[in-house]
Structures are given as C-alpha cells and as structure tokens.
Design a protein that fits this description.
By secondary structure, this protein is mostly helical. It contains 6 helices and 3 strands.
Length: 139
C-alpha cells in the first residue's frame, strides 16, 4: 500500500514538473523595446499595448524580438479584458477555449474576423497582435 502511494505521488510530481517545463519562458525580456534602435526587430507600437493594460508592457529579447515583460500577467490580462473577441474567434472557427497550448489558432484567425460587433472584431484583431508578441517568449 505504501509503495503504491509513493509511486502515485512520484508520478504526480513528475507530471507537474513536466507541465511546468512546457510552459517555461524560453526567451525572456532582457532589454527595452525601442523600435529602430540597436538590434530591435519590427515596429511594435508599445504605447498601444501599454494603454490597453499596464500588464501588456513590452520589452525585447536579447535578439531584439518584442516580448511581454511578464507574459503570464499579460496572458491573464488578455483573458480578463478580451473575452468577447476570444469568444468570437472560437465561435467563428469552432475552436476550443483558448489556452497556452492552442493560442496559435487564435493568432491566425483573429485577424481574419469579419463578423460580430465592431468592438468584438477590434478585440479579435488585437488578440492576433497580442499572440504575435506572446509567442516570442516560448519555443
């Protein structure tokens, strides 16, 4: 009985550690993102993101790619503030609820949304831009 309990506990711990490793930030914020300076790539409007929610603060990786300074908080803010756009994308493209594992479909389809209210469409388009930056933090 004790061996079984220990085995199950070890199995649960191993699964937990594996899940954490999959969500690990691989390319963290290491410098300020100032378009056109140094090795910064792209031309992200950082003010637009920051004005929407302070948790959308953008920095850059060592290689100059835009990333959220705290991608977990940024993701949390997206879920809190853009539920209408997320629902519109999911409904129009028959997607399961957004997660850190399936956001690529939301990135792809958000920019293509043409149905729903003007506000929901705007949210969906922003969601595509959000995930374009969000994915830079992970492999």
């Amino acid at each position: 009985m004790k061996r079984t309990i220990v085995f199950i506990m070890c199995l649960v711990l191993a699964c937990s550690l594996s899940a954490c490793a999959n969500g690990k930030i691989r390319h963290p914020y290491e410098q300020e993102y100032i378009a056109g300076q140094g090795n910064i790539k792209g031309n992200v409007d950082t003010a637009e993101f920051f004005e929407r929610d302070k948790r959308f603060e953008i920095g850059a990786t060592m290689d100059g790619y835009a990333v959220f300074k705290d991608p977990d908080k940024a993701y949390e803010a997206l879920l809190e503030n853009y539920s209408e756009g997320l629902k519109l994308i999911a409904d129009e493209h028959q997607l399961s609820s957004v997660s850190k594992d399936n956001y690529q479909a939301y990135k792809k389809y958000g920019a293509q949304i043409t149905t729903g209210s003007a506000e929901a469409q705007e949210q969906a388009h922003f969601i595509s831009k959000f995930f374009d930056i969000y994915e830079n933090s992970y492999d």
